[in-house]
Each structure stands twice: as structure tokens, then as C-alpha cells.
């Protein structure tokens, strides 16, 4: 990767904040990065501004030599230094050499090392035996190849950053998930996308797992279990119970409520106000039954103002003109993409000119009065 495009100003030198009693020292360091690994002048200035204490080329030369010993080319070295300038101040033999060796021996390529440093500039400054190796071993437990390991490390740089506070919790929680039968893919997704889930205190985490199975009725083998876990760990149990009570207040049976949660637990993440508006519209205005709605839980994820009400309006026109029968249903049309729904409307343009315009106008209208 060339850093020739990293222009920080038309006058980049005014951002060069390295303080020096001897201006020649600045030029020496800039020229060193330019000549040693091919930095542009602008990129060299930007990089050195982040390590203002660096006055000599002695340590940087040793750092670069270590990288070259491991056959990293100038482009790799330049990128690593640009993303992690503090590396220039590291002890090359004690700090860098053993860590680079571990990564390369574990199947990571030179390019992988660049990507990992970009995602986590402090990577090569963490303790080898206290952080890097434990994290590597944990990730290797749930992936099958080097490419997956790199991807997880890139997306879950927090595993290193929060090591002291959460690593033991993470290990214990992931073990619980494995014991309960979750797949490696599900566990990796939690690590990379839902860190708040796996960093819980293990006792709290276990109680949440039990609550999802026993109180919400979502078994571990269900595809919805992870969705339930991600939702439940963000909410207090009292908050969830309040939302379930709303359904009960609208006449839903325990079986219907259980189905509503089991088939799409994400619905519990919506506010009480949204759930009430949803129930008022579908049950009180349109006359839908709780039995029907408990089987059409994806409707709740759709905006009433932007999608449901505008589509219901034109759907009602089509039904009134007897241009549609029992199919498609409103719930089916609500789940259409915008492109697909407009294509559906266009087939009635001869019978009802301007129907699509009526639809788009109703979106603006319902949003204005929302």
C-alpha cells in the first residue's frame, strides 16, 4: 500500500509537531523513513508526529532490520509503521522478534500481520505470554483455518484490549456455549459482533442461558437461540416481563406469547410504546387476531409509518377494486423489498393509473403525522 495519498494539508509541515532543539533532527528522521522503506514525505511527517520523543534513527533501524529478518518487504514494514508508529520505539529483540515469530509460526502471513496491526495498532506491544498466546489459543479453538483466525482477530481486537478485565469471563462463557451445543460459527459470531454477550460475569451469563430456555422457551438447538441471547443480555428481566404483560393485556394467550418470543426473540428489543402502537393498529384498527399475529412476528420489525400503513393503504384500494384476492396477504406485502413492492404495484397501472404515486405520497403523509 502506498501512502502517497495521505496528504494532511497543502502545507503538511505545519502539522509536524515533533519538537526539537535542532531542526536538522527532524529532517534526519523524515529522510530516514523516506530512504529506508519508501515513505512519502507527507506520510513520514504524519507518522513521526505521533512519536515526538523519537530523536535518533538507531532504534528504528534495529526495528526495521528485525522485520526484514522475517522477510517482510518494504511495503509491509512501511504499512505497519504507519498504522503503529510506536513500534519504532519498541525493543526490537525482546519485544518484537518473539512476537513476530509466534504469528508467522502460527500460519499468519506477512500481509496478515499488516492487517492485524491496522485493526489493532497496539498488537505487537502486548505481552507475548500474558495476552497474545492465550488469545491465539482461544481463537484457534473455534476456527478451522488461518484465514478465519485472522478474520476473528481483526474483528475482535477488543480481546487484547480488555484482556485483564474480561478474558477469563470470555473463556468461561464460550465453554458454556460449547457445552450447550452451539456451533463454532455461532460462537465466532458472538465474539466478533456481540462482545457484550460473552464478557458478562459467568454466573450472570449462565443464569441468562437458563432463563432463555426455561422462561422464554427457546432451546439451545434453535436458530433463534443466539438472537435470544443477544437480545436478553441487553435487557433487564423486569423489562422483558413488562413487554410480555402488554401482550397479555391485549388478550394474548400464554401459548401465543411463547410463540411470539420463540419465533423471533428480537421483538423483545422494541420499546413498549412501539409494541402498543403495533398492537393498536393491527388488532384494534385492522381486526387481526392474536393467533395470526403470533405467527407473523416479523411485522413488528417493520416501521408502521414508513412501510406498514402506506402499503396497507394501497392494498386496501386493490381489495376494494377486487384486483387482488386472499393472496398476497398484507403481511407478505409488508415483507417485500421496496423495489419488489413497486414492481407489484406497477402491474395494476392500467386499471389504477397513479397507484405507485399514491403509495409514495402516503409514505410522506404518514411520516408527517407520526
Short description:
This protein is 64% helix and 0% strand. It is mostly helical and 370 residues long.
Description of the structure:
By secondary structure, this protein is mainly alpha-helical. Among the domains are: 1-124, no CATH class; 302-368, no CATH class. The protein has 22 helices and no strands. It has helices at residues 23-37, 41-48, 58-69, 74-83, 92-105, 110-119, 128-142, 146-155, 158-161, 163-179, 184-193, 195-198, 202-214, 225-232, 237-249, 254-263, 272-285, 290-293, 304-320, 330-334, 338-346, 355-368. Helix 4 (74-83) runs parallel beside helix 6, helix 15 (237-249) packs parallel to helix 17 (272-285) and helix 19 runs antiparallel to helix 22 (355-368). The radius of gyration is 29 Å and the shape is elongated. It starts with 22 loop residues before the first helix and ends with a helix. The model is unreliable at 1-21 (pLDDT under 50).
Amino acid at each position: 500500500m502506498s501512502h502517497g495519498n495521505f496528504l494532511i494539508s497543502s502545507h503538511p509541515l505545519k502539522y509536524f509537531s515533533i519538537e526539537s532543539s535542532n531542526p536538522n533532527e527532524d529532517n534526519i528522521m523524515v529522510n530516514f523513513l523516506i530512504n529506508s522503506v519508501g515513505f512519502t514525505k507527507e506520510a513520514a511527517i504524519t507518522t513521526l508526529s505521533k512519536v515526538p520523543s523519537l530523536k535518533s534513527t538507531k532504534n528504528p533501524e534495529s526495528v526495521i532490520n528485525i522485520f526484514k529478518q522475517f522477510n517482510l518487504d518494504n511495503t509491509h514494514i512501511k504499512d505497519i509503521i504507519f498504522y503503529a508508529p510506536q513500534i519504532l520505539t519498541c525493543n526490537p529483540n525482546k519485544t518484537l522478534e518473539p512476537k513476530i515469530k509466534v504469528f508467522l509460526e502460527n500460519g499468519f502471513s506477512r500481509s496478515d500481520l499488516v492487517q492485524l496491526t491496522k485493526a489493532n495498532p497496539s498488537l505487537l506491544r502486548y505481552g507475548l505470554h500474558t495476552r497474545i498466546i492465550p488469545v491465539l489459543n482461544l481463537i484457534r479453538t473455534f476456527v478451522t483455518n488461518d484465514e478465519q483466525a485472522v478474520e476473528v482477530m481483526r474483528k475482535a481486537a477488543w480481546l487484547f484490549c480488555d484482556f485483564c478485565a474480561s478474558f477469563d469471563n470470555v473463556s468461561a462463557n464460550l465453554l458454556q456455549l460449547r457445552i450447550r451445543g452451539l456451533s463454532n460459527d455461532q460462537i465466532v459470531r458472538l465474539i466478533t459482533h456481540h462482545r457484550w454477550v460473552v464478557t458478562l460475569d459467568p454466573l450472570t451469563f449462565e443464569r441468562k442461558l437458563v432463563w432463555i430456555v426455561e422462561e422464554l422457551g427457546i432451546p439451545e438447538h434453535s436458530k433463534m437461540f443466539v438472537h435470544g441471547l443477544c437480545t436478553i443480555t441487553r435487557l433487564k428481566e423486569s423489562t422483558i416481563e413488562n413487554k410480555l404483560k402488554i401482550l397479555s393485556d391485549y388478550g394474548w394467550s400464554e401459548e401465543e406469547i411463547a410463540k411470539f418470543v420463540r419465533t423471533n426473540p428480537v421483538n423483545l428489543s422494541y420499546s413498549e410504546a412501539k409494541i402498543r402502537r403495533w398492537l393498536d393498529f393491527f388488532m384494534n384498527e385492522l381486526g387481526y387476531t392474536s393467533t395470526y399475529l403470533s405467527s407473523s412476528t416479523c411485522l413488528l420489525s417493520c416501521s408502521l409509518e414508513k412501510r406498514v400503513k402506506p402499503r396497507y393503504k394501497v392494498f386496501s384500494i386493490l381489495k376494494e377494486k377486487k384486483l387482488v384476492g386472499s393472496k398476497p396477504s398484507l403481511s407478505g406485502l409488508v415483507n417485500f423489498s421496496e423495489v419488489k413492492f413497486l414492481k407489484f404495484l406497477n402491474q395494476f397501472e392500467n386499471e389504477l393509473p397513479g397507484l405507485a404515486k399514491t403509495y409514495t405520497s402516503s409514505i410522506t403523509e404518514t411520516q408527517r403525522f407520526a
